[in-house]
Design brief:
- The chain is mainly beta.
- It is globular and about 40 Å long.
- An eight-stranded antiparallel beta barrel has the order 1-2-3-4-5-6-7-8.
- It starts with 5 loop residues before the first helix and ends with a strand.
- 25% of the residues are buried.
- The chain contains two helices and nine strands.
């Protein structure tokens, strides 16, 4: 992945599709909000609707040195550390694909709750070119 401008990456991202992690099952209206903090890591708030209730989790994300900010270390509950890699990113930052290091979790994100089907298909092609099995992707109900 090329360099990621953290300031441009910050803001609200809506989950278009994902390879859902166990904690994300039964979620709809999923989104992630990235906020720059003064001098420290990026503040992250992930939220969704589950069984009619809004649930959320907060974390901090720090770019890994030498990764061009495309590799983030995300810390949940001050003790759980996860690798998140921005593996695809639109030039205009309108959509992104984020994965964990093992590829067992993947999120297709966009700046709006819905993504044009032609763009969605193009992203699937990019994933296929990377050897990622997109058949495991589940579209998120927004």
């Amino acid at each position: 992945m090329k360099k990621v401008d953290v300031a441009r990456y910050c803001g609200t991202w809506y989950e278009i599709a994902s390879i859902p992690a166990k904690r994300q099952r039964n979620c709809s209206k999923t989104k992630a909000e990235y906020t720059l903090s003064g001098t420290g890591p990026v503040q992250v708030r992930n939220s969704c609707m589950r069984r009619g209730r809004s649930v959320s989790i907060t974390a901090t994300a720090s770019p890994v040195q030498g990764s061009g900010n495309a590799h983030l270390k995300v810390r949940f509950f001050r003790i759980i550390l996860a690798d998140y890699l921005v593996i695809e990113l639109a030039e205009d930052y309108s959509w992104a694909v984020v994965s964990n290091r093992s590829g067992t979790s993947l999120w297709l994100l966009a700046r709006t709750p819905y993504l044009d089907q032609e763009i969605f298909e193009s992203i699937l092609g990019k994933l296929q070119n990377r050897g990622i099995d997109s058949s495991k992707l589940v579209k998120t109900v927004q």
